Amino acid sequence: MNIILFGPPGSGKGTQGDYLVEKYSLFKVSSGNLLRQEIKKKTFLGNEIKSLIDKGTLVSDKIINNIIEDILLKKNHSNNLIFDGYPRNLNQAVELDKLLKKYNEKIMCVLSLNIDKKSIVKRVLGRQICSNCDLTFNEYFNPSTKNNHSCDSKFLTKRTDDNEGVISNRYETYLKETFPLINYYINQSLLKKINGTQKIDEINEEIRQIIDSLET
Predict the structure, then answer these.
(1) Which of 140, 144, 162, 178 has the fewest CB atoms within 10 Å of its CB?
(2) Terminal-to-terminal C-alpha distance of the chain
(3) Pairing assessment for the beta strands 81-84 and 27-30 based on DSSP bridges
(4) Are the C-beta atoms of residues 63 and 27 closer than 8 Å to each other?
(5) How do the domains of the chain map onto residue ranges?
(6) Averaged in consecutive runs of 10 residues, what is the pLDDT profile of the chain (216 residues)?
(7) Whole-model pTM?
(8) Could you give the CA distance from residue 181 to residue 90 in angstroms, rounded to a whole number?
């Protein structure tokens, strides 16, 4: 199965994506993580990407689409993907459809996490990323513990773009560019709306029921 998971920045896509990867043995395609890997390499492209992200500006469609196609080229990931943070706008959605058709794949469903701006700000300011395993935690809602995280706490970091000013900028960008995707996927009968203000395990259960019902 291929699944798209989207919602405003800080809506919990990373946490739910990790759940889906474990539950259904999927390979998570996170454009954000892929871009951060490039930043770690400190290449010219990586420095350019970092500058854009720090300002709360989205990276160009061309860069993102090329990264996505590289993933689709790997046959071991065929029809076994969850897209987290991609597509971000209508142009990327149209391009993804072209790429999926090119490699004989399709999307099973699109999960949209709905959440208000106030809740997003609190979630993002508490977000922590493990630089060793890439798992996502939140010091307020889903803290790292010995039961859910095997890495040392020294690996927990905060993103440079996780501040209130950037969050507000990214939220407005989402409303302008990404929100129109809802109608795009409604027209394809793929969109499933999720209440993103629920507790993490409640969201897990709602998502599981949707996916299981589509597989039967």
Answers:
(1) 140
(2) 13
(3) parallel
(4) no
(5) 2-215
(6) 88 87 90 82 85 81 84 85 89 94 94 88 86 89 92 91 82 82 94 91 94 83
(7) 0.74
(8) 6
